[in-house]
Amino acid sequence: MTTFQPALNAVPAGIGAPKAVATPGKATPAISAKTWIAVIGATLGAFMAVLNIQIVNASLADIQGAIGAGIDDGGWISTSYLVAEIVVIPLSGWLAQVFSIRIYLLTNAVLFLLLSMACAFAQDLPQMIVLRAIQGFTGGVLIPMAFTLIITLLPKAKQPVGLALFALSATFAPAIGPTIGGYLTENWGWQFIFYVNLVPGAIMIGMLWFSLQSKPMKLSLLRAGDWPGIITMAIGLSALQTVLEEGNKDDWFGSPFIVKLSVIAAIALTAFLWIELTAKKPLLNLRLLFRRNFGFGILANFLLGVALYGSVFILPVYLSRIQGYNSEQIGMVLAWTGLPQLLLIPLVPRLMKRFDPRLVIGIGFALFAVSNFMNIYMTNDYAADQLFWPNVVRAVGQALVFAPLSAVATAGIEAENAGSASALFNMMRNLGGAIGIAALQTLLTKREQYHSNVLMQSVSVFEQATRTRIEQLTQYFTNHGVIDRVDAVHRAYVALGHIVQKQAFILAFSDTFYLLGAALIVALMAALLLKKPDHLESGGAH
After folding, report:
1. Are residues 192 and 53 in contact, defined by beta-carbon separation less than 8 angstroms?
2. Closest C-alpha among 94, 92, 36, 46 to residue 210
3. Cβ-contact 258, 107 below 8 angstroms
4. What is the CA radius of gyration of the chain?
5. Residues 22, 542: contact at Cβ < 8 Å?
6. Fewer CB within 10 A of the terminal residue: the chain, N end or C end?
7. Spatial separation of the C-alpha atoms in residues 520 and 372, rounded to whole Å
8. Any idea what DSSP says for residue 423?
């Protein structure tokens, strides 16, 4: 089948140098310096785009207060970025073919930096939402284009190195984002979370400007574009992402707004699937999903997104709500999910040469699952010290998973299908994150209600322990200035209710970690069904 999506065989393999092809018994030709500069520059852009999501989320409360946004409406600061990002990811390969890799990537990199700086000067919520949405369109381009350059410019034997670099954006950036965001917000002000992009962004633009070869634009391809697919995809993904981001806050299907968006998403995405599977020149080649390694790799990657973004979401909520940590303290706790990755990820390509990459993937998923199961027995005293080892184990697991999973899943993908593969692989991880966060928000709410009901059945005034506790609390309030005993007793009951609710929340948080661990076990099973690619039969060294 001839596909219209990004024909990246038009991308120069090696940026002006012939593409190195690894063949058994033949040494891999040297890769030009420009190729590595292009790959490193592109992955730096992807790192910044992913970091931007988490760094802003860590400082959302401060931003809301500064621009006068309410808690509910302020959520659109993140939602607008994520909606734009998930829509543009599948479009990036095709648009890169239309405008050329160099022009498309450099233009979006420059706009990303300008919009990041503009966000720091936003005066109100509408301004911030518009700026963040446009920034999402530009930042969303940087993620799949980096992945595409790695799997098209580097020979198979060197792709693990490139994918290890990309893993810094896929797994390290989400983990370290709250640390950087919390520190900057507490010490310099929320505006600096947007300024932090400027220096690395300037380096990225310089590297891409130097390394990417000029190619003529092919604007005529706009006329032949899969416009029905583009329109249905954009509508469907926008509606779905909004439902996932806003659903829990709006009581899901109790809200007419959520119901309408859900119907729109279902109709549009169903139409998109039908169009892509029947069109002669589809935007995305969905038939790649029927390939064994890519299909199971996508499933494992989707569940990785659930656990990766889900854990980055749930830990700050727990530390803030239960332990009363500020954003900087939360960042210091989460640093241990990021810093070990910085040391381990560069070693992963060597592990892939020495061991079956599927074994590395399996161990990674197993460790990531174990790190979540280590948190299913939380107590009121479960804080930074108790989270240290689970976070370190999680860091090791995440570091081991991404590069080998990407290499195995995309093995055998032809150059003309590279854009589709990159778009699907990155979109599904992000979509997994959105679905994971939505599921965790709902689970947290429902399980807190369940545990509250169970605990309240044990808190009876007919129980001696309950009466003793109420008397202790009454005495406490009396000793701290409450003269009226009736008022002191009332406060004691209220305080007891808060204690029960807090304990119910702790149990609910434990349940969320159990769900994340279970998702990773399913991902592990999907990884076990992967077939070892031919080019990795000797560990990737040819």
Report:
1. no
2. 36
3. no
4. 25
5. yes
6. N
7. 9
8. H
- Distance from C-alpha of 52 to C-alpha of 135, rounded to nearest angstrom: 10
Domain residue limits, the chain: 32-219, 226-282, 286-445+512-532, 451-503
Q: Is 189 helix (H, G, I), strand (E, B) or coil?
A: coil
pLDDT at 278 over 80: yes
Whole-angstrom Cα distance, residue 500 to residue 143? 44
d(CA 149, CA 213): 13
Buried/exposed 485-504: b ≥16 CB within 10 Å, e otherwise: eeebbebbeebbeeebeebb
Amino acid at position 102, single letter: R
What does the block give as tokens for 293?
A: 């390694």
Residue type, 264: I
Which helix (H) or strand (E) covers residue 362, if one does? helix 357-373
Task: For residue 213, report the phi and psi dihedrals to the nearest 5 degrees.
Answer: -80, 140
Nearest to 51 by CA among 153, 184, 241: 184
Local structure of 332: helix, strand or coil? helix
32-219 and 286-445+512-532, same CATH topology: yes
Least Cα distance to 324 among 335, 334, 316 occurs for 316
Q: Are 70 and 133 in contact (CB under 8 A)?
A: no
Counting every residue, how long is the chain? Answer: 542
**CA quadruple 301, 307, 309, 312: dihedral sign:** negative
State the burial class of residue 121 (Cβ atoms within 10 Å of its Cβ: 0-12, 13-18, 19+). Answer: exposed
- The pTM of the full predicted model, rounded to 2 decimals, is 0.85
CA 402 to chain centre: 12
Q: Where are the alpha helices (DSSP H) in 380-484?
A: 384-410, 418-458, 464-479
Give the DSSP per-residue string, 319-351.
HHHTT---HHHHHHHHHHHHHHHHHHGGGHHHH
At residue 26, does pLDDT exceed 60?
no
Q: Is 481 left (phi over 0), alpha (psi -120 to 50) or beta?
A: left
User: Residues 232-253: pLDDT tens digits?
Assistant: 999 999 999 899 888 888 888 8
Distance CA 304, CA 286 (A): 20
The residues near 513 (Cβ < 8 Å, ≥ 6 apart) are: 311, 314, 372, 373, 375, 376, 378
DSSP H or E stretch at residue 87: helix 76-99
* Nearest-angstrom CA–CA distance, 524 and 518: 10
State which fold the 32-219 domain adopts. Answer: Growth Hormone; Chain: A; (1.20.1250)
* Phi, psi (deg, nearest 5) at residue 463: -90, 135
Distance CA 8, CA 23 (A): 21
Report residue 157 as tokens: 């034997």
Taking the C-alpha atoms of residue 171 and residue 346, their distance in angstroms, rounded to an integer, is 13
What is the dotted CATH code of the domain comprising 286-445+512-532? 1.20.1250.20
